[in-house]
Specification:
Length: 338
């Protein structure tokens, strides 16, 4: 691609620009990544938080690996699952008294958690869920908002938008498990995830126009990309709330489940999906996510160039060689993310 700079005229300028764009996108994989010809391997960032999680005694298989040390007063519980679920991390919102609304403190905790997760190579998939029955996230904390001076509102929304963008830019697959109400910023949080699953009884919508404001956490941009511009405008203009079946029909979510007695049908489905991702090559998953996300924002020719550059990143990896060897030996590959 570097040779494109030598092509005369406007075409050469365009190709050179595309080459720079692709290089910038590949740099987005993280520090230590290089374009083809200068592979240095993935960086191994130190885990910022100590694990210390222990499997819960007893219970159904889907609960294995849950910490018995999580404090009930924590507004955000970060759980590193173990055993057959090793590599899956659950971000559980736990503000029952405030319907999981997004306060200054919760936004700060989410930012801290995401900052830790994005540099942890052992993390393979992240599930965002609620630990409060019947609620995913009711949006911004309006009781806190009403006490804010008008000069505080803008900076708070900027911080909320930033943390939602950080979630969208996580290098591993993210799944939102919507087992209850997801309104305003709560739905924007879910929209930032790669995949959304919901119970049929869940309710979701961008309802900000009811308060004479607009979605400020990415909703005006991510909802049209998920369901199309015309329908997104209709939902935002009307502040309409959809149930799980309606959300599935318009493409807002990927899967809809009948709610169970425990109230965690969406979470269980999210866990099943996450388990499907675990056996695959970790580097390949990260690069595939990058190629898809960045390719969707550009024209097809540039998108194909991004795919080509991203594909080249997988060729020199030990995982690729392990995959070929495992195929030859008719065994399950043992990927290490290298």
């Amino acid at each position: 691609m570097a040779a494109a700079a030598g092509v005369p005229g406007a075409l050469g300028t365009l190709r050179a620009g595309r080459a720079r764009l692709v290089a910038a996108y590949c740099a987005g994989i993280g520090p230590g990544w290089r374009l083809p010809g200068s592979w240095t391997g993935l960086p191994v960032g130190p885990a910022i938080w100590a694990r210390g999680w222990t499997p819960a005694a007893g219970g159904a298989a889907w609960r294995r690996g849950y910490s018995s040390e999580a404090k009930t007063e924590d507004e955000l519980r970060v759980r590193y699952l173990e055993e057959e679920n090793r590599g899956i991390v659950v971000l559980g919102i736990n503000r029952a008294y405030a319907k999981n609304s997004l306060s200054k403190n919760l936004v700060k905790m989410l930012s801290k958690a995401v900052d830790a997760l994005k540099s942890d190579k052992k993390v393979r998939t992240i599930i965002v869920r609620s630990e409060v029955p019947g609620i995913f996230c009711a949006g911004a904390d309006l009781k806190e908002r009403v006490k804010m001076h008008s000069s505080e509102v803008g900076p708070f929304v900027s911080k909320l938008r930033a943390v939602i963008n950080e979630i969208a830019n996580l290098p591993v697959p993210t799944i939102a498990a919507i087992d209850g109400l997801a309104l305003g910023g709560g739905l924007e949080l879910a929209l930032a995830c790669d995949i959304r699953v919901a119970a049929s009884s869940a309710k979701m919508g961008l309802v900000e126009t009811k308060l004479a404001i607009i979605p400020g956490g990415g909703g005006t941009q991510r909802l049209p990309r998920a369901i199309g511009m015309s329908l997104a405008k209709e939902l935002i203009f009307s502040a309409r709330v959809l149930d799980g079946q309606e959300a599935k029909a318009v493409g807002l979510i990927s899967h809809v489940l009948e709610q169970n007695q425990e109230g965690d049908a969406a979470y269980r489905k999210a866990l099943d999906l996450a388990r499907e991702f675990l056996p695959q090559g970790p580097v390949a998953i990260r690069v595939a996510k990058l190629a898809i996300n960045q390719g969707m924002e550009v024209d097809l020719v540039t998108g194909l160039a991004i795919e080509e550059a991203c594909y080249a990143q997988t060729v020199p990896t030990k995982d690729r060689l392990e995959g070929l060897l495992a195929f030859k030996e008719k065994r399950t590959p043992r990927y290490k993310g290298e």
